[in-house]
Amino acid sequence: xxxxIQSPRHEVTEMGQEVTLRCKPISGHNxxxxxxxxxxxxxxxxxxxxxxxxxxxxxMPEDRFSAKMPNASFSTLKIQPSExxxxxxxxxxxxxxxxxxxxxxxxxxxVL
Amino acid sequence: xxxxxxxxxxxxxxxGESSSLNCSYTVSGLRxxxxxxxxxxxxxxxxxxxxxxxxxxxxxxxxxxxxxxESFLHITAPKPEDSAxxxxxxxxxxxxxxIFGSGTRLLVRP
Lengths: 112, 110
Hints:
- The structure holds two protein chains of two kinds.
- Chain A is mainly β.
- Chain A has strands at 5-7, 10-13, 19-24, 31-38, 42-50, 53-56, 65-71, 74-79, 88-95, 101-103, 107-111.
- In chain A, strands 2, 4, 5, 6, 9, 10 and 11 form a seven-stranded mixed beta sheet that branches. A four-stranded antiparallel beta sheet of chain A has the order 1-3-8-7, with no helix packed on it.
- Chain B is mainly β.
- Helices cover 0% and strands 60% of the residues of chain B.
- In chain B, the strands form two sheets. In chain B, strands 2, 4, 5, 9, 10 and 11 form a six-stranded mixed beta sheet that branches.
- In chain B, strand 4 and strand 5 form a beta hairpin.
- The relative contact order of chain B is 0.34.
- Chain A binds chain B through residues 4, 31, 42-43, 45, 48, 50, 55-56, 91, 93, 95, 98-106, 108, and chain B through 31-32, 34, 36, 41-46, 49, 87, 89, 91, 96-98, 100-103.
């Protein structure tokens, strides 16, 4: 199995630009999570999907953030417009039936 | 309030010097306690799941144990390649969420 695949691995953009991060979960996992990791706040859950349906987006910091999961094998996290304080590593994870989360390699976002 | 606390924040060991990392938690209804390893520039890598007090799991030089209030990750005769950040996370009966601790940064010197 290829594991959770995220793209891009690195993104540098200017304030105000739109950013789209992508995720392909492990085949057969029906739950998908988006996390953000910073030195100050550690790993924070942004949004959770179950069977492609958003269940809890209470961790999404502002309306500038949105996430979609159009099918079982693809999800996007979009930030529009981006701000310097959005700089972080964004992780996608999918969950096995046993409840373990498997993370992708992350997308490191830098907003100048 | 549901909470997960890891200690120490950072730990430096000499190669071969065994030690333990601590993860203490206060949650209402533990579904499982998870240990992850994270290398710089990588995503967290799953290590163990523990479900009930008294349970133990082992993998190479690592052994995880669980009580009703805390979990320990014991590292026996560590090697430099064990250097990483170790994260614990708690899952609750009432929620799909995992609450992560802030991690312990382990450095093993040759």
